[in-house]
Write a structure and sequence with these properties.
Elements: E1 20-21, E2 26-27, E3 30-31, E4 34-42, H1 48-56, H2 60-68, E5 72-79, E6 84-91, H3 94-99, H4 104-113, E7 128-130
Antiparallel strand pairs: 1-4, 2-3, 4-6, 4-7, 5-6
Amino acid sequence: MNGLRHKKFLAIGEVANREWRTMPKLREGMVVSVMRKGFKMKLNPGQALEYEKRHNGLWPEMADMIHAHGGKNYSIFLDHDTHVLYGYIEIEDEALWEKGADTAINRKWWDFMADIMETNPDNSPVCHDLQLIFHLK
């Protein structure tokens, strides 16, 4: 590992494909490519503190699921003026990451978060992918 501490945040479910950006990373003695993904979601007005509280208490089994499906270095930012959440995550494999959306723990998390953000009929967050425009190493 590169010595960076990985933060644990919300599983967002399915997001659209991103361009691959290669970063060497050791995992079990192998070098794997890492895909950078950006996305946005929308928080209901007045729910910023509750959103942060729920994420500060992220269930250990959610963090385990995110890691088991190749998610690392996960961060979510909030624009207080627009209530838009901007997420960033690095994943190892798109297909593996997408399988995480169908896990029981992820669906339980979606249900838990549905009352404070825009959601689809299945309680998954309304999520829009962002195009990577620039990256500096």
